[in-house]
Amino acid sequence: MIYGAMKFSIGGTLKAVFRPWVEGLENIPAEGPAILASNHLSFSDSFFLPAVLDRKVTFIAKAEYFTTPGVKGKLTAAFFKGVGQLPVDRSGARGAGEAAIKSGIEVIERGELFGIYPEGTRSPDGRLYRGKPGGLARVALATGAPVIPVAMIDTEKVQPPGKVVPKLVRPGIRIGKPLDFSRYQGMDHDRFILRSVTDEVMYEIMKLSGQEYVDIYATAAKRQIAEAAKKRAEAEKAQ
């Protein structure tokens, strides 16, 4: 009930204001479980994708969004619950990964759609980064659910990192054909299989999005960018 009301109000507003274009809606099954694996350009990705679908999509969100005290914290928690997001404690990298995998499997076992960003974090510069071989591949191989590649386009222009007020830019969404990895079902602890599955999905996302692919993790790229910015600042200060 809450999800339906949130989807109607938020989804309807997003579609009316930003008019997102969509290709490949026919690739989303009318019923049954599936994993939606998407590139990640903006905080708003988790809202634009559900807005254009008839079915509920469950994403993973930081536990802090659900536990912040005060009126603002309660409103934020209600909002994220209303749009179908699940809290995951990210205080420990391994624990967070296992919690996300467990949550994803539970969503799939209920016959629902599970949304995940294989890059693990937002792209720092609009390029597509190497997918992490944990959550996506393990959920797919543990459940046998099809993986549907999704490309979010220009959402970073709607809400650039660090900006609160969105810009009136028309974003796009391309949805690819389902990928079947059932031949590997039960092999979710083979790291070579996990890497192969993840890379295949990322290749399909790259084709859909048209992004330049960078074969390092986005988290490493963010560190490099931050270090370069720090060095520039120190050099300017020294002048």
Automatic annotation (TrEMBL):
UniProt KW Hydrolase keyword: no
Alphabetized CDD domains for the sequence: LPLAT_AGPAT-like (cd07989)
The keyword Cell cycle is annotated on this UniProt entry: no
Molecular functions per Gene Ontology: acyltransferase activity
Keywords: Acyltransferase, Transferase
Residues annotated as domain Phospholipid/glycerol acyltransferase: 34-155
Superkingdom of this protein's organism: Bacteria
InterPro entries, per database record: Plipid/glycerol_acylTrfase
Cited SMART domains: PlsC
Protein name from the UniProt record: Lysophospholipid acyltransferase family protein
Species annotation: Streptomyces sannanensis
